[in-house]
């Protein structure tokens, strides 16, 4: 018999020789997800071995094939195929249906055929304190948490007619209006408030899985920029080029000084002033010239 401890459930079970981690979990009432029924097709039953990896039996042919396909490290195993010879502590990686979608999704995408100068709202978001948050995590967990966060942000952005055009470590930028559609500033602000709410909804999951959560800061600027596909032929993304992009990053970074979560530039504020509630006002030095630029904290939609 081998004792298996399942996190974050806090359940331990004694598994007979030859019983898989998945079968042992189900026998103990652990709600272990297995989208394909435990037939080594979907990988949603994957676990990370926190302790006792030396007691885990080698991967069989079916598991090895999946591991190579997904590029999984040795500590990440398929519970439906893995057996153990001694005590182990594992953590389920798929806790709900959103995790199933992330694990199962095949990546696909295409670049929009753009090449124009357009008024675009540029949204920049950055995770606060992600270096400290990720310091105690395994590399696999760091990437997985980022992917879950980016998935949530992408859904909110897409719902408002924008798209994420760049990822910068734990930051991202999104464009609204690059498709020529109107009300870019309003849609960007609605998306930003939705992103803050989605981050709050993600917090319980992060606390359950990793013992702590994080917050984000968002900055939005509206200006005319050049947009078009950029990158290698098979990896093109729609890029926004010009000083407006740098300024949007400066607007976002000002959140830390102001103590806010969402700041917008004066052009954005003028476009949405009658639709939002505002908090603090700040000023940052213009990159060129003596004038300061006003920034406005958006707290809610009216």
Percent strand:
25-35%
- Output the CATH homologous superfamily of the largest domain: Nucleotide cyclase, GGDEF domain
Low-confidence stretches: 106-114
CATH class category name of the largest domain: Alpha Beta
H/E element string? EEHEHEEHEHHEEHEEHEHEE
Give the helix tally. 8
CATH topology of the largest domain: Alpha-Beta Plaits
Task: Name the CATH architecture of the largest domain.
Answer: 2-Layer Sandwich
**Content-based structural category:** alpha+beta
Largest beta-sheet details: 8 strands, mixed
Total E-strand runs:
13
- Overall mean pLDDT stands at 87
Globally, the shape reads: elongated
Q: How many structural domains can be distinguished in the coordinates?
A: 2
Helix content: 25-40%
Subcellular location: Cell membrane
Protein name: 2Fe-2S iron-sulfur cluster binding domain-containing protein
GO cellular component, one term: plasma membrane
GO molecular function, one term: iron-sulfur cluster binding
Task: Compile the SSE list and pairings.
Elements: E1 2-7, E2 11-15, H1 21-27, E3 46-51, H2 61-70, E4 76-78, E5 88-92, H3 97-104, E6 116-128, H4 130-134, H5 139-159, E7 163-168, E8 171-176, H6 184-210, E9 215-230, E10 237-241, H7 243-258, E11 262-265, H8 266-272, E12 276-285, E13 292-301
Parallel strand pairs: 1-5, 9-11
Antiparallel strand pairs: 1-2, 3-4, 3-5, 6-8, 6-9, 7-8, 9-10, 11-13, 12-13
């Amino acid at each position: 018999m081998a004792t298996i401890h399942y996190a974050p459930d806090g359940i331990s079970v004694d598994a007979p020789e030859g019983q898989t981690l998945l079968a042992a979990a189900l026998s103990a009432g652990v709600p272990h997800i297995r989208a394909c029924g435990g037939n080594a097709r979907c990988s949603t039953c994957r676990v990370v071995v926190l302790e006792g990896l030396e007691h885990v039996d080698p991967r069989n042919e079916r598991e090895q094939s999946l591991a190579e396909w997904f590029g999984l490290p040795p500590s990440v195993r398929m519970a439906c195929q893995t057996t153990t010879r001694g005590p182990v502590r594992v953590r389920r990686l798929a806790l709900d249906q959103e995790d199933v979608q992330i694990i199962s999704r095949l990546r696909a995408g295409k670049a929009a055929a753009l090449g124009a100068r357009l008024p675009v709202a540029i949204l920049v978001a950055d995770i606060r304190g992600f270096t400290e948050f990720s310091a105690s995590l395994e590399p696999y967990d760091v990437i997985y948490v980022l992917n879950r966060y980016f998935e949530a942000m992408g859904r909110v952005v897409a719902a408002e007619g924008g798209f994420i055009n760049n990822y910068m470590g734990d930051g991202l930028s999104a464009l609204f209006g690059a498709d020529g559609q109107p009300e870019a500033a309003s849609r960007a602000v609605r998306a930003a408030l939705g992103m803050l709410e989605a981050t709050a909804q993600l917090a319980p999951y992060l606390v359950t899985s990793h013992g702590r959560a994080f917050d984000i800061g968002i900055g939005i600027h509206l200006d005319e920029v050049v947009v078009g596909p950029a990158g290698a032929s098979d990896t093109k993304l729609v890029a926004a080029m010009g000083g407006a992009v740098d300024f949007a990053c400066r607007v976002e970074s000002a959140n830390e000084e102001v103590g806010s979560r969402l700041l917008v530039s004066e052009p954005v504020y003028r476009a949405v002033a009658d639709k939002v509630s505002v908090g603090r006002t700040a000023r940052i030095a213009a990159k060129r010239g003596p004038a300061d630029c006003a920034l406005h904290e958006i707290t809610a939609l009216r």
